[in-house]
Amino acid sequence: MTADHPSRYEAIAAFHTALFAAAPLDEATAPPDEATAPPDEATAPPDEAAAPPEATVPPTADSGGAGRAWRIAGWGSADLQRVRFEALLRTSGYRGGSVLDWGCGPADLYFFLRDTNLPLQYTGVDLDPRMVELASSRGAPDVSLLPEGRAPEGTYDYVFASGIFQFEDPSDPLYYLQILEQAYDISSRAVAANFLSAERSEHAKAADELYADPSTLARFAAAVTPRWVLDHGYHPQGADFTIALLHERVTGGSGPSSGRS
Fold it and tell me: Which CDD domains does the record match to this protein (predicted)?
C-alpha cells in the first residue's frame, strides 16, 4: 500500500501508537473499580433501550465502565463505550457462556461481561502485541496475539467484535464481511459487531475510516442466517450501529431493532 492509502493493519498500528502516546498507562492499567472517568468528562444521553433481562448492566458502568482504558481503546468517552457494549449484549441475546472478544484491545469488554454476574469463559485476541500485554496486565484471562489475516481457532457461544472495523482498506474494501462470516462459523449462539454508520453526518467523518451501509449489512446477514438483528438506535447521534447474526431465536426481548429475529 502507498502512504496515501495504508492498509487497515497499517492504519490500526498507527492509531494505536497515537493512543498509547496520548493516554497515561498508569490510568489505563488500573483495575476497573479503581479508575473512574474524569469529573469534566462529557457524558452521552443514556441509552433508552434496556439490556435483556438475562444480562444486568454492571453498576459501575456509569462511573467509567472498565476504567480509563477506554482512552487506549480509542472510544470518545466511557459512556459511548458502554452503550456499544450494551448493544452487543442486547442484540445477541447474551445470557452468559464462552466468549471470544475478537480485537479485544485492553479487554474492557471482559470486565463489562464479568460484572454482569453471568457465567463467563473469556478469550481475547488482538493484532497488536501492545494491546495483548496491556489486557493481560489488567487481569484479563486467556488473551493472545492473532496474526494478521488469520481467523481465531476454536468454537465459542458468542463472538463479539467491538471497534475492529474502524478503518477502511482500499485493497480489500469488504474485508469486514469475511470476518463476520468467519466469526459466525466459530460461534454457536451469536456473533455481534459494531460499525461506524454511513448515515452519520458528513462533517463527523474522517477520510480513512470505514462507514458501513446498514442496508448492505442487513442483506449480508439475511444471506447468512434467517435470524439476525440490526440496531441503529442506541448511539446519541445515530452515528453507529450493531448487527448480530444469530444461530437461535433471542428470548427475553432484544430491545428496539430492525431486521428479523
Answer: AdoMet_MTases
Tell which residue, 165, 168, 184, has the closest CA to residue 248.
184
Structural domain harbouring 81: 8-28+61-246
Query: Is residue 67 in a domain?
Result: yes
Residue 90 and residue 83: Cα distance in Å, rounded?
A: 10
Q: Is residue 153 part of a domain?
A: yes
Alpha helices in the chain (DSSP H): 8-22, 25-28, 69-73, 78-92, 108-114, 129-137, 175-185, 214-224
Over the chain (261 residues), what is each successive 10-residue block's mean pLDDT? 56 54 55 41 35 40 41 63 95 98 95 97 96 94 93 96 92 93 97 96 90 96 97 91 90 45 33
- The answer to pTM > 0.85 is no
Is residue 254 domain-resident? no
CATH number for the domain spanning 137: value is 3.40.50.150
Q: Which three cell numbers stand for residue 162?
A: 467491538
Amino acid at 117: N
Number of domains in the chain: 1
Position 44 in a domain = no
